[in-house]
């Protein structure tokens, strides 16, 4: 490493991130089981230089009917109070990790599921893991209703990881691809790692998020992923992936595309 590299790397760790996908609410889904565990995870997020996190408990799929949008918003407000009391420098916004389902558009309209930061523009969409269901029609219908899908961790889906170019057919609907920070580090295996890098070359906007659940096997590692991206695709692209597009997802603004060769 050259002295210049070491300077830019030092600058990189001073960045602060927005995490748009994290299971940090206590006792709702497969995230922390209770308040102490949630605070431990939130401390780890803050230590990972994340300033704002979107709490995204699972909705629909195997969590269908367990809690609604109102309960998620209340849990977010409570967690923010606990964070202030514990002096943990982290701000939590409401969201959800929504299993794809034909009821989604109706449920957004009836306020039963939560969009990213409650902005009514972006929705995290989780594909079933076992089979591949092409979300193209859902993405098209969402766009008609003024909404935009964020496909969570395509690099961890067996079908898409093997054929990243498949996502090109979604270009007319401009969904965001959300790649997991840990995938760049090999935390989800070789295939997901290779696919994470391959998706950077696809013509869709991307954002990196932790999808953290705990401080053990699914701990946040945004800073480390940012350092790696900074090194291999450059500072501008790393900033878009880990800061600018996450900020735009939260603000409900149009996303920036990458330029990776
Ligand atoms: Fe998730």
From TrEMBL:
Keywords attached to this Swiss-Prot or TrEMBL record, sorted alphabetically, are:
Hydrolase
Q: Which family does it belong to?
A: Belongs to the metallo-dependent hydrolases superfamily. CpsB/CapC family.
Asked whether the keyword Membrane is assigned, the reply is: no
Q: Which GO terms describe its molecular function?
A: manganese ion binding; protein tyrosine phosphatase activity
Segments traversing the membrane? none
Organism of provenance:
Anaerobaca lacustris
Q: What is its EC number?
A: 3.1.3.48
Pfam family, any one = CpsB_CapC
Q: Which InterPro entries match?
A: Caps_polysacc_synth_CpsB/CapC, Pol/histidinol_Pase-like
Answer whether the UniProt record assigns the keyword Ribosomal protein to this protein. no
User: Main EC class of this protein?
Assistant: hydrolase
Q: Which reaction does it catalyse?
A: O-phospho-L-tyrosyl-[protein] + H2O = L-tyrosyl-[protein] + phosphate
**Name recorded for this polypeptide:** protein-tyrosine-phosphatase
